[in-house]
Design a protein that fits this description.
about 210 residues; Immunoglobulin-like; 9 strands; MSP_dom; MOSPD1/3
Amino acid sequence: MHQQKRHPELVEGNLPVFVFPTELIFYADDQSTHKQVLTLYNPYEFALKFKVLCTTPNKYVVVDAAGAVKPQCCVDIVIRHRDVRSCHYGVIDKFRLQVSEQSQRKALGRKEVVATLLPSAKEQQKEEEEKRIKEHLSESLFFEQSFQPDNRTVSSGPSLLTVFLGVVCIAALMLPTLGDVESLVPLYLHLSVNQKLVAAYILGLITMAILRT
């Protein structure tokens, strides 16, 4: 009864396959990476048989490319890269692990693992660092361009109010000082020394603001 209920699910071929890692990276300058290990897990209550296929079998040696995994156990699959040449740098190869129940031939599940040969681990780290720097510069450039119109508005020149205040201060400094009897300007336009000092101070601030823009 239990077998009859389980088999309809298995024959659909959707059985999840648990493999770690899902990506293999080989480095040409590091011989220790020329040998990688895939671990196939069987969390089920029945045994599985497996088979390892590869898109480029002439480049790799797979130790125990076929075998069985006991229930709730795991098995290590050793993969060696045997064709480390520059013409293979960056080429993505694929391994496919097919699993089936021991009493059946049809694959119940499959999982793909990608493999890549890179020239150097240091070069890979350098490329990743350069990529991060480029991304940072792109974000900074985008941020700068996003706020560029506002900056142009602010730095386009002094506002009309600033110019008006500057003209008023200059005019105030040109007016006669209180006590200047010989001036032809009406007395109510005569300014005190303190008033002229305030006008001069404001004019200085306006000048500094204009020079900074």
